[in-house]
Amino acid sequence: MQLKIISPEKIIYSGEAELITLPGELGLFTILDRHAPIISALKQGTLTYRTGGKDTEIALESGFVEAKENVVSVCIE
Questions:
Q1: For tag attachment on the chain, is the N or C end more exposed, with fewer CB atoms within 10 Å?
Q2: Domain limits for position 54
Q3: Rounded to whole angstroms, how far apart are CA atoms 55 and 66?
Q4: 30 φ, ψ to 5°?
């Protein structure tokens, strides 16, 4: 799936991802390939995404995520 992680200052990541784990308001959740459409607020925690079998972690204060048609857009602070 295609992943875009954006902050107010810059594009942090834009590329392919195998899975994305996010700190939602109701707890951690994972988005996989061909996930159903979703929009969710994010709380303070760690966003983790996997590409090429390697996990990358990004600390965040808040934000939101939208997943639709195998494109996941994450806006974070």
A1: C
A2: 2-76
A3: 20
A4: -120, 135
Number of domain units in the chain: 1
Q: Summarize pLDDT for 4-63 with one digit per residue, the tens.
A: 999 999 999 999 999 999 999 999 999 999 999 999 999 999 999 999 999 999 999 999
Q: What is the largest CA-CA distance in the chain?
A: 29
* Residue among 76, 74, 77 nearest 17 (CA): 74
Is the full-model pTM beyond 0.90?
yes
User: Are the CB atoms for 19 and 32 separated by under 8 Å?
Assistant: yes
User: Whole-angstrom Cα distance, residue 50 to residue 72?
Assistant: 13
H/E run at residue 3 = strand 2-6
Give 9-22 pLDDT, tens digit per residue.
Answer: 999 999 999 999 99
